[in-house]
């Protein structure tokens, strides 16, 4: 399924996101120029948040975010897996469809789960096509830098806009030996710079920078012509993304230090459920006003039938 939008109705598209790049560097001699048809940036930061179902998608979209990401964090914050690795393409498709039904304006990006793009490249492109064709995604996100260059280019060739993702890529947790800030040594920072350049040169329209030092994110942001979207990468990125359940206090596990909490929905749910349980047990719920009633005529008849 997919949803058609009229141009100019406020719908945010991939070219709109490209136009939001701040501090566009002078043109370089790279073989692709993703910003070639851009007007001057209006300097507004890109706001991105995750959503995983219809109600959260509607709320996030109606609040005016620019990009809704169906992240593979779904596996941990909604499905209760220990990490993102077990999540399947079918699970991601199921949730992306639900999110699609709730998003009208924001750009809808779906994360490619672990294993869906790590083998044969043609199969990876077929998997990405499923997100667009069967779930209505407008772009996909792929973790990895230099080593994903060819794949990203192949996806772009298949008309699928790609958001890159470098730094602390959770699907690499075993290779990294856990969840650690990346790019802290000269060599690691150089590698991340190469990763960022590679993702851009392959044709990605944006790149997520996760858990890297602020200074490195600033350097990458000033060098790239595509927008950087930071999560734990400091304020100089062109935009920011957070996991919705972390920022509203609904994730039950550890939340990283960069994730600011704006609400405590978990506590609100807990209070509501406790109060409901007490009301049921004490006979305070439902009240008469919360009950349906018969008309007096039917009530009389019912009583008459009972008496006879
Ligand atoms: O899965 C996810 O939610 C993500 C964001 C944190 C960027 O990849």
H-E string: HEHEHHEHEHEHHEHEEHHH
Report the span from N to C terminus.
Answer: 59 Å
**Class by alpha and beta content:** alpha/beta
User: How many H/I helices?
Assistant: 12
> What radius of gyration results from the CA coordinates?
24 Å
Helix content: 25-40%
Strand order of the largest sheet: 1-2-3-4-5-6-7-8
Strand % is 5-15%
| Molecular shape | elongated
* Model regions low in confidence, pLDDT < 50 over at least 5 residues: 1-6, 28-39
Mean pLDDT: 92
Characterize the largest beta sheet: strand count, sense, and whether it forms a barrel: 8 strands, parallel, barrel
Ligands, deduplicated: 3-methyl-2-oxobutanoic acid
Quick one: how many beta strands? 8
By oligomeric state, this entry counts as: single chain
Overview of this protein structure:
By secondary structure, the chain is an alpha/beta fold. It has helices at 14-19, 54-62, 74-77, 89-102, 121-133, 149-157, 173-176, 186-202, 214-223, 244-247, 265-281, 296-307, and strands at residues 46-50, 67-70, 107-111, 139-143, 162-167, 206-210, 228-231, 239-242. It has an eight-stranded parallel barrel, surrounded by six helices. Strand 6 (206-210), helix 9 and strand 7 form a beta-alpha-beta unit. Helix 2 (54-62) crosses helix 4, helix 6 (149-157) runs parallel beside helix 8 and helix 8 (186-202) packs parallel to helix 9 (214-223). It is elongated, with a radius of gyration of 24 Å. The model is unreliable at 1-6 and 28-39 (pLDDT under 50). 3-methyl-2-oxobutanoic acid (KIV) binds next to loops. 3-methyl-2-oxobutanoic acid binds at residues 50, 71-73, 111, 208, 231, 241, 243.
């Amino acid at each position: 399924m997919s949803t058609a939008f009229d141009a100019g109705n406020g719908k945010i598209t991939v070219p709109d996101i490209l136009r939001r790049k701040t501090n566009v560097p002078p043109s370089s001699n790279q073989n692709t120029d993703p910003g070639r048809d851009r007007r001057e940036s209006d300097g507004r930061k890109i706001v991105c948040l995750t959503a995983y179902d219809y109600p959260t998608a509607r709320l996030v979209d109606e609040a005016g975010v620019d990009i809704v990401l169906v992240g593979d964090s779904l596996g941990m914050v909604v499905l209760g897996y220990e990490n993102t690795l077990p999540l399947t393409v079918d699970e991601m498709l199921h949730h992306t469809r639900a999110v699609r039904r709730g998003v009208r304006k924001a750009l809808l990006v779906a994360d490619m789960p672990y294993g869906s793009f790590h083998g044969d490249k043609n199969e990876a492109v077929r998997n990405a096509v499923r997100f667009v064709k069967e779930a209505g995604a407008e772009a996909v996100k792929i973790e990895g830098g230099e080593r994903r260059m060819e794949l990203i280019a192949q996806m772009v060739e298949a008309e699928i806009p790609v958001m890159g993702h470098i730094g602390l890529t959770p699907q690499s947790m075993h290779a990294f030996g856990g969840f650690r800030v990346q790019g802290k040594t000269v060599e690691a920072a150089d590698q991340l710079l190469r990763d960022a350049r590679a993702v851009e040169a392959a044709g990605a329209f944006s790149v997520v920078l996760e858990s890297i030092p602020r200074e490195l994110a600033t350097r990458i942001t000033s060098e790239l012509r595509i927008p950087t979207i930071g999560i734990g990468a400091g304020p100089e990125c062109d935009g920011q993304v957070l996991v919705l359940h972390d920022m509203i206090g609904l994730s039950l596990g550890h939340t990283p230090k960069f994730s600011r909490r704006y609400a405590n929905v978990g506590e609100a749910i807990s209070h509501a459920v406790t109060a409901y349980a007490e009301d049921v047990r004490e006979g305070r719920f439902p009240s008469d006003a919360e009950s349906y009633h018969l008309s007096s005529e039917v009530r009389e008849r019912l009583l008459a039938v009972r008496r006879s």
